[in-house]
Amino acid sequence: MKGYHINVFYSEEDEGYIADIPDLKFCSAFGETPEDAVRELGLAKAAWIEAATAAGKPIPEPRYRPLIYQLSL
After folding, report:
1. Is the pTM value of this prediction over 0.85?
2. Any alpha helices (H) in the chain, and if so which ranges?
3. Domain spans of the chain, in order of start
4. Element (H or E) spanning 8, and its range?
5. pLDDT tens track, the chain, 73 positions
């Protein structure tokens, strides 16, 4: 998924991992492991792009970049 930032986090409620692409609204996937979630997200991304294309909607450029900083302790 070159270009798009991917978030992966554990969901206690779902008892598994969620992966999402912030630039693609509502594009997310579930997996029992982080790797499973990212693999499923590849399928979700393809379906998201296919649906947007079929509906004539634009595909957003990758823009999201998380704020990462270092704390000095």
Report:
1. no
2. 34-54
3. 7-54
4. strand 7-11
5. 458 999 999 999 999 999 999 999 999 999 999 999 999 999 999 999 999 999 999 999 999 887 776 666 6
